[in-house]
């Protein structure tokens, strides 16, 4: 029993070393961040606590090194492992709802309520239906997405994964992880899938 | 016969700006061709409204507030030192943020105005920080900021990195700029870290380059036509963080000063276009 | 008494170019607040500009004129003309400011 306690104490001691090894600049930075924000509405201070993906992607120098490239693959695997396929086995929902979800940029800010329905904000970054001329270019055009790629099982799973957690394919993708952080419900993501992949969707005309 | 030619600018809240463009019969080209003609139309609109910037009304109010005795000490702000000496406002904003010996820290314009309002006038720092944007003490801040930044219009952006704390503020700001957080993994760099990007039809300056930083840092504070309000840099940064789904950045904090320092130093050599006029 | 206006007026070749910025919320009466209630209408209803005592411009503003209106017009006049700009709003509040043509 005593040995176990000694071993765990040594283990905990080892864990605290990285904290001591932090540069004084790191300490200054953490202090600035922790003193720079306050919780407001639904936006709590847990939001500035980074997970491994965010930590990695906050270091532009590291990303461009060999070490960074290797870590990126690790991060991608990590994210892929957490993706959940639709519980009802349905990949395609209603594209009309999908368009509305893609148009709405609402939700998750400190001025939103806990029961505010989140939008996907997709048009903020993507061209989707060509009829919508107010679209951003932070992401690639999704016009004719389904028409160009078809409806194979692989394509359904790939697209589902991308919407759920784009970092499974690109560690530092700019795209939010809509499934991972429960920003969108399963049904909403099924509707977005329809917008992109339903042959009847205006996106595929 | 009296000659009367009327040119009334209808600065209506143009939320669906593209709706107006459609109404004026813009033809739909292929996506890149259309995006260009849309950008041209928006540029034309900006030229049209460039005259008659309502920021001037805030500037007038600020000029009065600067001289008016206020606070428990019943003193004016005429001795306020924004870095170029007590009471000197011409060109002051173009050299902020900077290190101040009396507070032993790097301060941006709003942080420094808080210092002046509290030390010269006895006004509570916490009351200024806690006041809701555009109300009460923050309304006074809007006017003072408009007054001070107007006095730097067309000046060269000249932010110092000589003092070690100025260098440090820049590096802290840079790290904050790339800091991903919140449920959408956004950092400032997500939107402002590369060239040629836009959200919907809103162009995003690349704040890591001189040209982009000059465009961004040099044109805020500004009057926002769509909300009919004057936005200080403090409000602009606050709303950025809100849309990044972060928690609430504390007004006047070292964090906001550091982020400002990063943008301002990157913009060095450029020209101040403040106060700006935005959609 | 409403908030001060900013008036600029410059003469060139016998024509005075007048630019006026007015500070006013110009509520149309059609906007709703956060709780869904209509914000009551409150806007400048009439504007009048006199040069050397004679009216050179008058307007009836309606609910379509937006916040902090900017007005620009020209009239035949001279340097040194004394301009008086006045407005009245739907609550009966008034504002009057003067400027000299440069």
Brief account:
The complex is a heterotrimer of chains A (205), B (279) and C (102). By secondary structure, chain A is an all-alpha fold.
The largest chain-to-chain contact, stated as pair and per-chain residue counts, equals:
A-B, 47 and 42 residues
Task: Look at the structure and give the mean pLDDT of chain B.
Answer: 89
The main sheet of chain B comes to: 3 strands, mixed
- The helix tally of chain A amounts to 9
Backbone CA Rg of chain A: 21 Å
Alpha plus pi helix count of chain B? 11
Describe this structure in words.
The complex is a heterotrimer of chains A (205), B (279) and C (102). Chain A has 205 residues and is mainly α. Chain A is built from nine helices and one strand. The longest helix of chain A is centred in the N-terminal third of the chain and has 19 residues, at 2-20. Helix content of chain B is 44%, strand content 10%. Chain B contains eleven helices and nine strands. A three-stranded mixed β-sheet of chain B has the order 7-6-9. Chain B has a two-stranded antiparallel sheet with strand order 2-3. In chain B, strands 4-5 form a two-stranded antiparallel sheet. The longest helix of chain B is centred in the first third of the chain and has 19 residues, at 31-49. Chain B is globular, with a radius of gyration of 20 Å. Classes of the chains: A mainly alpha (205), B mainly alpha (279), C mainly beta (102). Chains B and C meet through strand 1 and helix 3 of B and strand 2, strand 4 and strand 5 of C. Strand 1 of chain A pairs antiparallel with strand 8 of chain B.
Search tags:
heterotrimer, A: 205 residues, mainly alpha, 47% helix, 1% strand, C: 102 residues, mainly beta, three-stranded antiparallel β-sheet, 7 strands
List the helices and strands and how they pair.
The complex is a heterotrimer of chains A (205), B (279) and C (102).
Chain A: H1 2-20, H2 24-36, E1 37-38, H3 52-57, H4 60-63, H5 66-81, H6 95-103, H7 145-149, H8 153-164, H9 186-197
Helix pairs in contact in A: 6-9, 8-9
Chain B: E1 5-9, H1 17-23, H2 31-49, H3 55-67, E2 98-100, E3 105-107, H4 109-119, H5 125-130, H6 136-150, H7 164-177, H8 188-192, E4 197-199, E5 202-204, H9 210-217, E6 222-224, E7 229-231, H10 233-243, E8 248-249, H11 254-267, E9 276-278
Parallel strand pairs in B: 6-9
Antiparallel strand pairs in B: 2-3, 4-5, 6-7
Helix pairs in contact in B: 3-6, 7-11, 9-11
Chain C: E1 6-12, E2 15-21, E3 44-51, E4 54-60, E5 70-76, E6 82-89, E7 94-100
Antiparallel strand pairs in C: 1-2, 2-5, 3-4, 3-6, 6-7
């Amino acid at each position: 029993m005593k040995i176990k306690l000694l071993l765990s104490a040594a283990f905990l001691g080892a864990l605290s070393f990285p904290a001591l090894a932090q540069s004084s600049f790191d300490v200054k930075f953490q202090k600035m961040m922790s003193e720079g924000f306050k919780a407001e509405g639904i936006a709590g201070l847990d939001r500035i606590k980074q997970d491994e993906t965010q930590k990695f992607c906050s270091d532009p120098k590291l990303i461009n090194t060999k070490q960074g490239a290797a870590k990126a693959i690790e991060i991608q695997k990590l994210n892929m492992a957490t993706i959940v396929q639709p519980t009802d086995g349905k990949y395609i929902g209603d594209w009309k709802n999908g368009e509305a979800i893609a148009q709405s940029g609402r939700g998750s800010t400190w001025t939103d309520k806990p029961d505010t329905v989140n939008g996907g904000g997709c048009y903020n970054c993507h061209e989707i239906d060509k009829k919508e001329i107010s679209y951003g270019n932070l992401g690639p055009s999704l016009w004719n997405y389904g028409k160009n790629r078809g409806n194979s099982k692989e394509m359904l799973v790939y697209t589902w994964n991308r919407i759920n957690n784009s970092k499974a394919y690109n560690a530092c993708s700019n795209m939010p992880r809509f499934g991972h952080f429960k920003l969108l419900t399963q049904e909403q993501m099924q509707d977005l899938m329809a917008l992109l992949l339903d042959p009847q969707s205006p996106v595929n005309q | 016969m009296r000659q009367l030619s009327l040119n009334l600018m209808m600065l209506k809240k143009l939320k669906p700006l593209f709706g107006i463009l459609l109404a004026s019969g813009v033809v739909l080209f292929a996506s890149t061709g259309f995006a260009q003609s849309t950008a041209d139309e928006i540029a034309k609109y900006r030229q049209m409204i460039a005259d008659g910037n309502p920021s001037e009304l805030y500037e007038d109010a600020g000029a009065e507030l600067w001289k008016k005795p206020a606070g428990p000490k019943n003193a004016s702000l005429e001795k306020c030192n924004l870095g170029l000496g007590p009471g000197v406002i011409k060109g002051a904003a173009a050299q902020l943020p900077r290190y101040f010996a009396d507070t032993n820290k790097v301060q941006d314009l709003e942080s420094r105005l808080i210092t002046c309002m509290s030390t010269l006038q006895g006004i509570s720092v916490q009351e200024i920080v806690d006041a809701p944007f555009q109300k009460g003490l923050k309304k006074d801040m809007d006017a003072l900021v408009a007054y001070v930044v107007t006095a730097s219009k067309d000046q060269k952006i000249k932010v110092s990195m000589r003092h070690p704390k100025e260098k440090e503020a820049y590096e802290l700001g840079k790290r904050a700029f790339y800091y991903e957080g919140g449920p959408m993994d956004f950092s400032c760099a997500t939107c402002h870290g590369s060239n040629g990007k836009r959200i919907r039809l809103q162009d995003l300056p690349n704040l890591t380059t001189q040209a982009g930083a000059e465009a961004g840092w040099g044109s805020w504070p500004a009057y926002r036509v769509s909300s009919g309000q004057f936005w200080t840099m403090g409000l602009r940064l606050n709303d950025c963080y809100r849309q990044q789904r972060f928690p609430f950045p504390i007004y006047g904090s070292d964090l906001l000063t550091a982020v400002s320092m990063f943008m301002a130093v990157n913009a060095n050599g450029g020209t101040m276009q403040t106060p700006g006029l935005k959609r | 008494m409403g908030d001060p206006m900013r008036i600029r007026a410059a003469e060139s070749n016998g024509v005075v170019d007048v630019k006026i910025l007015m500070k006013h919320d110009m509520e149309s009466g059609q906007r709703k607040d956060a709780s869904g209630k209509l914000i009551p209408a409150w806007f400048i209803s009439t504007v009048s500009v006199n040069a050397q005592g004679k009216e050179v411009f008058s307007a009836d503003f309606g609910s379509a004129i937006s916040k902090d209106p900017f007005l620009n017009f020209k009239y035949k006049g001279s340097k040194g003309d004394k301009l008086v700009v006045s407005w009245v709003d739907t609550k009966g509040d008034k504002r009057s400011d003067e400027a000299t043509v440069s």
